[in-house]
Specification:
Largest sheet: 8 strands, mixed
CATH architecture of the largest domain: 2-Layer Sandwich
CATH class of the largest domain: Alpha Beta
Protein name: Chaperone protein HtpG
Subunit structure: Homodimer.
Shape: elongated
Strand order of the largest sheet: 1-6-5-4-7-3-2-8
Helix content: 25-40%
GO molecular function, one term: ATP hydrolysis activity
Number of domains: 4
Structural class: alpha+beta
Number of strands: 21
GO cellular component, one term: cytoplasm
Bound molecules: adenosine-5'-triphosphate
Number of helices: 25
Oligomer: single chain
Pfam family, one: HSP90
CATH superfamily of the largest domain: Histidine kinase-like ATPase, C-terminal domain
Length: 634
Amino acid sequence: MNAASKETLGFKTEVKQLLHLMIHSLYSNKEIFLRELVSNASDACDKLRFEALQNDALLEGGADLKIDIHFDKDARTVTIEDNGIGMTRDDVINHLGTIAKSGTAEFLGKLSGDQKKDSQLIGQFGVGFYSAFIVADNVVVETRRAGEDAANAVRWESAGEGEFSLENIEKAERGTRIVLHLKEGEEEFADSFRLQSLIKKYSDHIAIPVFVQADAEEAAGEEGEEAKAPEAVNQAKAMWTRSKSDLTDEDYTEFYKHISHDWNAPLTWMHNRVEGKLDYTSLLYIPAKAPFDIWNRDASRGLKLYVQRVFIMDDAEQFLPLYLRFVKGVLDSNDLSLNVSREILQQDKQVDSMRSALVKRVLDTLEKTAKNEPEKYQSFWDQFGEVLKEGPAEDFANREKIAGLFRFATTLSEGETENVGLADYVARMREGQKKIYFITGDNHAAVSTSPHLEYFKRKNIEVLLLTDRVDEWMVSHLADFDGKVFQDVTKGELDLDELADDTEKDQQKALEDSHKDLVERIEKALEGEVKSVRVTSRLTDSPACMVVGQYDMGGHLRRMMEAAGQKMPEPEIALEVNPSHPLIERLDQEQDEERFVDLARLIHAQAQLAEGSQLKQPALYVARLNKLLLDLMK
Ligand SMILES: Nc1ncnc2c1ncn2[C@@H]1O[C@H](COP(=O)(O)OP(=O)(O)OP(=O)(O)O)[C@@H](O)[C@H]1O
């Protein structure tokens, strides 16, 4: 293609939306553009170094990777230049004209127009290259992919307003040069001192040296003095290789922002050097806020792999299980080969050992946070609890440890906050109680008022209130905690052996004996609708409730599976009635068989509604109820 090949292309809609929002909501943090562009430049150098392992011709004879920052006060420009991997014309179109993240549309839909809230969200999304437009009204990118001819370079230019132009240019040096034409009022950035202090503040941890042009007076130097070789503004050393005592919280936080593209400071981090059988350094972070695509299990994950300080890959998913996909960080191994690939990692024994160690480290840190900083832990749980709940199914060996990190709302806790750990639950179990009781449902209001809880409330036995979609599935994988099995209170007969004293058991027996006829009559009236009917002492205020078989799927999970189009086998449903309830007493005395059947069906329908089920024939229920109401009004 020749130089005449200039073309103008439109940004994808989502870029336009994002640009607009970003410029407005991030204006109060405008200086972050430099961090983002330097971060990209450093990634580009990392990528070049990696590709050069296979093909050192890419270095074109120059292996000194660096980032240069220039400015021109009069022209009001700032230039960020790297000699990294560079981009081809296609790369430029793909990376600087679209947003290649899945879920972008949903993300944009969540933005509210409230600048404060939106800037938080945009932070979670990652602002990247486009942040240049916060301070610039024109951005020129000149880039040449390493290994390409000088004539195959590209110039991209845009005012950030819907379109960009592309043309072929000559560029002798490989890599990318980004020229920002600062908006009026932003000339403060065309200043050596300002740029240097921003690099120190935000990019000190970048492993590639960053050089900032000196001020004119400074550069001229004293007369007769020899020009000094410029010094990098940053430490230019892989941050994780520095000793902990040398690093401040700010260093850790800025490094986190660089690798994670997250705007918020992390919740906590773990920095460890391991020597011995394995030799590696890991720096792992737990974010404070969940990224927008945490539920996309294919979304990129956060561990970068380095081998002997050389960047090898992003998303080194072999080193952490999916249920810890929120962890971000760096792993630098001295044992693996520089030629390591994803396929090799999958079969490598050392990788398994490192993975186990990293998992243990993360779980231990979470445990420690939960113990020493409960409020901080609570905010972690609120963000990532649901992800962690995938743990017992994925990581059987650690399931007890993971379960210890869970937090739930219970019948004894205040409001809907999930803040009761299983260890707390077990510690306050009633004398003789052997099981951990729970109930699942769509929301807190529905489960906390379930008839199934009446007996437990009466006996002051704590019940976990589980309302996440994954809960029933999670508990089925957990099976027990501290030797106590989990029991769904809506399943199987109430376990009086465990919970009741002798008088209560005798009473139950007496109830069963004295209501044999009633039970038979109701069974007949509900033939085909329920599997069996029995009297119960589990209810206080409600006349009846539905109970599924001990090994059947609970109502909540069943409804979700059915909503997802799965056909479920019919469960063994029993109707349990409360003989002390006035309605059941009245039913027992009903002589008119037709009215008896109507009443029994109404009670059955109500029990279904109370557990959150839908009636198969709601209109029939309404008709029956109306008939009874009319009778009453006579
Ligand atoms: N200096 C550069 N050299 C080479 N490629 C670059 C450079 N700057 C950006 N790119 C390319 O453009 C892509 C988009 O950059 P951008 O900063 O928008 O997003 P990102 O870095 O992938 O992630 P995030 O949006 O979370 O920051 C990068 O992934 C990279 O491929």
